[in-house]
């Protein structure tokens, strides 16, 4: 177990809890430790692959059900543990959903590198809990530990025809790259797939046969909240091959706080698998990132169809 996970585990009074809720767990070590206690374990990390691994290991998962609805009517004592989410909106979603679920006692212990912790995190947790304090540090890591749940409820953020559940990228606003991508789409889409849909901003207002997919549960819930069909899976793994005439892709390029241009590879492979013969992929990317070579390795014809000061849209077939 890495130092951060060990600190989080030691900061949480797991022994006295009826249930352990594992929030953000990129290594899987907190999940393993929780399962070893024999207690009821609920895994609420929004990542599809991590959630499926947790389900296979014996945990319950919130999956693509809103967390406040999944936990509503709970009782007994609970300890929630995990890595501190990067997004304050995701932190608020976790805190309000768990504090407001109905447990008699709640302790939440979330940890991170000291340089990634901020007073605004204390403030957000303080809206859902009576007591919020920092743990003793261990190396360069520390936890924020909250207890004493308040009577709170979670309400998604709404705006500009969008709904933001949890930490969905761009919140309830369209992002600039996605807007350029949407403007570059053809008038006739045929069977259309929004791959890695985020909050659904690219597909909002589109007519016809529209499907969305994302591996992040918050994104799926946000997209469904504006009336779009959306699957929660790994790069469209539940969709039928060669079944879409047009695919739009606005891929992530950050792994945590680090730029990682390789994140697009898995999505490009999936796009090639899901495109019907004669179909086209429309991809937007930050112009300084070298995505075109990755696209050309998978598609015979690639051309630039839109560009502004920050973003480029490619069409591939």
TrEMBL record:
Q: Which GO terms describe its biological process?
A: methylation; rRNA processing
Q: Which domain of life is it from?
A: Bacteria
Q: Does the keyword Transferase apply?
A: yes
- Does the keyword section mention Transferase? yes
Q: Which SUPFAM superfamilies match?
A: S-adenosyl-L-methionine-dependent methyltransferases
A GO molecular-function descriptor: nucleic acid binding
Instruction: Report any Pfam family annotated for this entry.
Output: MTS
Q: Which UniProt keywords apply?
A: Cytoplasm, Methyltransferase, rRNA processing, Transferase
Alphabetized CDD domains for the sequence: AdoMet_MTases (cd02440)
Task: Extract the signal peptide range.
Answer: none
Q: What is this protein called?
A: Methyltransferase
């Amino acid at each position: 177990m890495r130092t951060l996970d060990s600190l989080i585990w030691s900061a949480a009074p797991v022994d006295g809890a009826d249930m352990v809720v594992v929030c953000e767990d990129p290594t899987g070590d907190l999940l393993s430790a929780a399962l070893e206690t024999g207690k009821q374990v609920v895994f609420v990390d929004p990542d599809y692959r991590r959630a499926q691994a947790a389900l296979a290991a014996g945990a319950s998962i919130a999956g693509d059900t809103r967390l406040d609805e999944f936990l509503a009517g709970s009782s007994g004592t609970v300890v929630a543990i995990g890595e501190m989410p990067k997004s304050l909106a995701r932190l608020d979603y976790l805190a309000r959903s768990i504090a407001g679920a109905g447990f008699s006692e709640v302790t939440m212990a979330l940890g991170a590198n000291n340089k990634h912790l901020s007073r605004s995190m204390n403030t957000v947790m303080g809206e859902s809990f009576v007591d919020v304090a920092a743990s003793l540090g261990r190396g360069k890591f520390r936890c924020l530990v909250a207890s004493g749940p308040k009577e709170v409820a979670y309400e998604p953020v709404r705006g500009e025809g969008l709904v933001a559940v949890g930490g969905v990228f761009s919140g309830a606003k369209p992002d600039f790259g996605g807007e350029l991508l949407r403007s570059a789409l053809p008038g006739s889409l045929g069977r259309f797939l929004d791959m890695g849909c985020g909050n659904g901003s690219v597909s909002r207002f589109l007519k016809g046969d529209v499907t969305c997919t994302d591996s992040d549960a918050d994104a799926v819930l946000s997209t469904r909240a504006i009336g779009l069909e959306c699957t929660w899976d790994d790069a469209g793994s539940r969709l039928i091959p060669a079944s879409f005439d047009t695919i739009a892709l606005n891929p992530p390029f950050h792994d945590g706080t680090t730029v990682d241009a390789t994140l697009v590879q898995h999505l490009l492979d999936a796009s090639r698998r899901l495109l019907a013969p004669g179909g086209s992929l429309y991809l937007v990317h930050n112009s300084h990132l070298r995505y075109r070579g990755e696209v050309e390795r998978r598609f015979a014809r690639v051309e630039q169809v839109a560009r502004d000061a920050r973003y480029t849209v490619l069409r591939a077939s």
